[in-house]
Amino acid sequence: MSVSSRAHSFNTAADQYAAGRPSYPPALFDFIEQFANRSLAGARVADVGAGTGIATALLRERGAHVIGVEPGDAMAAQFHTLLPDVPVVRGDGNALPLADASHDLITYAQSWQWTDTNRSVPEALRVLRADGALAIWWNTTAFDVPWIREQHQRIARHCGVKPTSQTRPDDSDAIRLAGLSGLPVARRQVRWSRTVSLDTQLANITSRSAFLVLAEDDKRAFVGEERGRLRELFPDEVVEETYVVDLLVATRL
Ligand SMILES: C[S@@+](CC[C@H](N)C(=O)[O-])C[C@H]1O[C@@H](n2cnc3c(N)ncnc32)[C@H](O)[C@@H]1O
Asked: Which residues does a 6 A CB cutoff place in the pocket of ligand 1?
């Protein structure tokens, strides 16, 4: 399965995505402000790979003037339904449909990995103002929580993808893997949890790209078995999901 098919797979399940995906903790936005050395209030922000607008909504709550950039039709349509008064433009991170030196902050919430960093890094630098910053982050797996670790391994096995390494990259590897070597970059990891229904937990795991590209009956079979396993662990069908948000903020030299 190509990277491009997975990058576009979200479009097939935009409703499920909006229903199941985790948000981001307030501390993440505090660190973005600290590392970007400016308040989000009044900042001109482009949220790229905005999807259904989960991060966009939080940036706006902090007072940012935010615009979404999203390549997928269905994701952009969900964005528009959920955030009707926030502009969303069609485009991707490799060729941003934004003017030179027009933004204080460019954000990528769980979407930087779909870009070609040989193109998306220069594009971000083109669109940012002189004192602007690029913030990228991911909700990563809390491998020290046994049920989360085991579920991660089951999903990887079922979808035929390599499980994520349980050893987190050190700062220099994380910066290199993100294609940001040579720029000043600050990194912070923020642990957080959310409590959700069992149905939301299942909608969350089935909205992941490795899962979205599977055949329908294959997905159904996995979800049925997973529901049974989780019911044994969480008989009241209330699940605590834990994440570690991995944040990188790059500024100019
Ligand atoms: C995992 S979703 C993240 C959505 C949203 N930012 C969030 O926090 O929920 C990844 C998003 O990246 C988008 N995407 C795929 N390829 C992209 C690219 N080359 N540049 C920017 N976004 C891309 C997908 O359409 C999808 O909406």
From this structure: 7, 10, 21, 48-51, 54-55, 70-72, 75, 92-94, 109-111, 114-115
Percent of the chain having pLDDT more than 70?
95
101 is a domain residue: yes
Residue with tokens 């959920």: 82
Question: Is residue 106 assigned to a domain?
Answer: yes
Residue 92 CA: which ligand 1 atom is closest?
Answer: 20
CA of 136 to the centre of ligand 1 (A): 12
Write the residue with the smallest CA distance to atom 11 of ligand 1.
Answer: 49
pLDDT tens digits for 137-186?
Answer: 999 999 999 999 999 999 999 888 888 888 999 999 999 999 999 999 99
Cα separation, 74 vs 61, in Å, equals 24
Q: Confirm whether 81 is domain-assigned.
A: yes
Nearest ligand 1 atom to the CA of 115 is: 19
Count of structural domains, the chain: 1
pTM value?
0.93
Determine the structural domain holding residue 65 and report its residue range.
3-142+167-193+242-251
Domain contains 118: yes
Which domain CATH number covers 30? 3.40.50.150
Ligand 1 centroid distance, CA of 201 (Å): 20
Residues 41 and 105 sit within 8 Å (Cβ to Cβ): no
What is the DSSP code string of 15-74?
Answer: HHHHHH-----HHHHHHHHHHHTS-STT-EEEEET-TTSHHHHHHHHTT-EEEEEE--HH
Report how far ligand 1's centroid is from the alpha carbon of 231 (Å): 31
Quick one: average pLDDT of 123-130? 98
